[in-house]
Write a structure and sequence with these properties.
single chain; 607 residues; alpha+beta; Elongation Factor Tu (Ef-tu), domain 3; Arc Repressor Mutant, subunit A; DNA polymerase, domain 1; five-stranded parallel β-sheet; 37% helix
Length: 607
């Protein structure tokens, strides 16, 4: 049996959904192969979208024409803007999801998408034609032929689920793993590593006295993720907070010898920034308490997620330590926490367009590249989908650099520096975060989405109108005075906000301009932070000069004797596309960069 298409997407997680939608919307016949269509866009970990830096990724996905922001807007049950007391560079949106409605809504959109077909199957091996991909072979025996394949397998590659000393194959608890595809990836020359992630126990909300916990409410006026969502209309519900205590820590500490993390049963490296409760009490032994967020998994669901106590301890120990926590003394555990370890491809083997170096037409996106999180996966997914489509259309790849987007930072970090642990996005990773804010993602990236046909003409026209209003307002503030000072200078003062200007005799003129809140916000940020923004833009110009110094892909670093041995090895492994990328490789010194620059200039001079 042969199924012909143009692009195959392997895996129906957050990366796979965005990859398949992007490719199909660009007019490419796409097939999404998933083990179980009922688990498309599943949230196996926390039922939330966004968060610090992750919220920026979601808004960028939306600006490019992706779907994650729209789906969370339609199914979110609590929205919060984080870091509102700090500057705009580090503010990030986050929303609790009704995870059942989320996956249902995402699947509905996939099934309604023209040029997209969903197939239920596993993928056991790759079909190749020389050094090019030719398709995949399903576990059913079916052959799916295509000119490009995007692998987004998440935690399913030789996945192994651990609870205490019990372990069984699985990509998630209760779901089978992909056992054979790893061997096929090795056969084409890719090296694989092993990572680990985990989840906490889920509790029955009916057995928790929430009045004994501290409520955490969302924003009074929820701010949507998508630039195309007018407002959030569904009901909003609170989360709750409690804490571990010395008794909890004692129980865990006394049973560390039963944790697969400490017995050597788990070989993969876990996430540094989202550690298990076993790791927390070991690494932070001086802390008497750790915060736990009790998060509802849905409006109509009785399950709650205990954010902060991921564990793979035996069920009996999980029961004991959960019941030692205030407010959870009588809580019934619906599902015990577990760890899952899985194969991944160290991402220095992938190019900046997410195509593998080993096989033309084979793209990787999501946790297979060593990342953690739904948002990091979705960001890679949309980029892989766009680039696979562009490749088939005979067009240049689409690569966002570090000065354009958090997505650019994410992918550049992966393909340049690699990762030995699950990679998580933070605002601190972005050098130019003042200009890469969550509030201006549409102004930075929507032109690309429109260019690829992922952003509609009405959306694009709305952005153009917004830009016009911003420019008109900036000009008005510069040209109009109040008591000898321009309104722009007054707005620049720390204690002044845009709404204060309407009290200075300018009310009728500003109101006549009919300024939406997002326009007011953009104008105020640009005025107040203008000096800082200009300095950052100057830094970007210097950065771009390094990025435009291209390095030919065929360059033999072994023939540059002045380079240190480590530099030659790492440059040969990563094969950077530019001098700027070379400078960001771990272990490459400024001296190595200078030697490379001199060599390239000499090569150019000699022709």
């Amino acid at each position: 049996m042969v199924n012909d298409c143009d692009i195959i997407v392997v895996g129906g997680g957050h990366a796979g959904c965005e990859a398949a939608l992007a490719a199909a919307r660009m007019g490419i016949h796409t097939v999404l192969i998933t083990i179980d269509p009922d688990t498309i866009a599943q949230m196996p970990c926390n039922p939330a979208i966004g968060g610090l830096a992750k919220g920026q990724l979601v808004r960028e996905i939306d600006a490019l024409g992706g779907e994650m922001a729209k789906v969370i807007d339609a199914t979110g049950i609590q929205f919060r803007m984080l870091n509102t007391s700090k500057g705009p560079a580090v503010r990030s949106p986050r929303a609790q999801a009704d995870k059942h409605l989320y996956k249902k809504e995402m699947r509905r959109r996939l099934e309604a998408q023209e040029n997209l077909t969903i197939c239920q199957d596993t993928v056991d091996s790759l079909l190749t034609r020389g050094s090019k991909i030719a398709g995949v072979v399903g576990g059913s025996g079916a052959e799916y032929r295509a000119d490009a394949v995007i692998i987004t397998t998440g935690t399913f590659l030789k996945g192994l689920v651990h609870i205490g000393d019990s372990m069984e194959p699985g990509g998630r608890a209760g779901e089978s793993s992909a056992e054979n595809l790893s061997d096929s990836l090795r056969a084409i020359g890719l090296q694989l590593g092993r990572l680990k992630t985990g989840t906490p126990p889920r509790l029955d909300r009916k057995t928790i006295p929430f009045e004994e916990l501290t409520p955490q409410y969302g924003d009074k006026t929820p701010q949507p993720f998508s630039f195309s969502t007018a407002e959030i209309t569904q009901p909003q519900i609170p989360c709750h907070i409690t804490f571990t205590n010395p008794g909890t820590h004692r129980i865990i500490r006394d049973n560390l010898n039963r944790s697969p993390l400490y017995t050597g049963q788990i070989k993969g490296t876990g996430p540094r920034y989202c550690p298990s409760i076993e790791d927390k009490i070991s690494r932070f032994a001086d802390k008497d308490a750790h915060q736990i967020f009790i998060e509802p998994e849905g409006i109509d669901s009785d399950e709650v997620y205990c954010n902060g106590i991921s564990t793979s301890l035996p069920p009996s120990v999980q029961e004991e330590f959960v019941h030692s926590i205030r407010g959870l003394e009588r809580a019934r555990i619906v599902r015990h926490g577990y760890a899952v370890e899985y194969d991944f491809v160290p991402p220095t083997q992938v190019k900046a367009d997410l195509e593998t170096k080993a096989m033309e037409g084979l793209f990787l996106a999501g946790q297979i590249n060593g990342t953690s999180g739904y948002e990091e996966a979705a960001a890679q997914g949309i980029m892989a989908g766009i680039n696979a489509a562009l490749k088939l259309q005979g067009k240049p790849p689409f690569i966002l650099d570090r000065s354009e987007a958090y997505i650019g930072v994410l992918i550049d970090d992966l393909v340049t520096k690699g990762t030995l642990e699950p990679y998580r996005m933070f605002t601190s990773r972005a050098e130019y975060r003042l200009i890469l804010r969550q509030d201006n993602a549409d102004r930075r990236l929507m032109r690309y989405g429109h260019q690829f046909g992922l952003i509609s003409d009405p959306q694009w026209q709305a952005l153009e109108e917004k830009e016009s209003l911003i420019n008109q307002t900036r000009a008005y503030l510069r040209e109009n005075l109040y008591r000898g000072e321009s309104l722009e200078k007054i707005l620049r003062k720390t204690e002044t906000h845009f709404d204060h200007l309407t009290e200075l005799g300018s009310q009728h003129k500003l109101q006549a301009m009919r300024l939406p809140q997002d326009v007011r916000e953009q104008v105020e940020i640009e005025v107040k932070y203008e000096g800082y923004i200009q300095r950052q833009l100057a830094q970007v110009e210097r950065f771009k000069k390094m990025e435009t110094l291209n390095i030919p892909s065929w360059l033999d670093y072994g023939k540059i004797p002045e380079l240190a041995n480590e530099a030659r090895q790492k440059l040969s492994c990563v094969r950077p596309a530019s001098l700027g990328q070379a400078s960001r490789i771990s272990g490459i010194s400024p001296a190595d960069v200078s030697i490379l620059l001199v060599y390239l200039r000499g090569k150019a001079h000699r022709g």
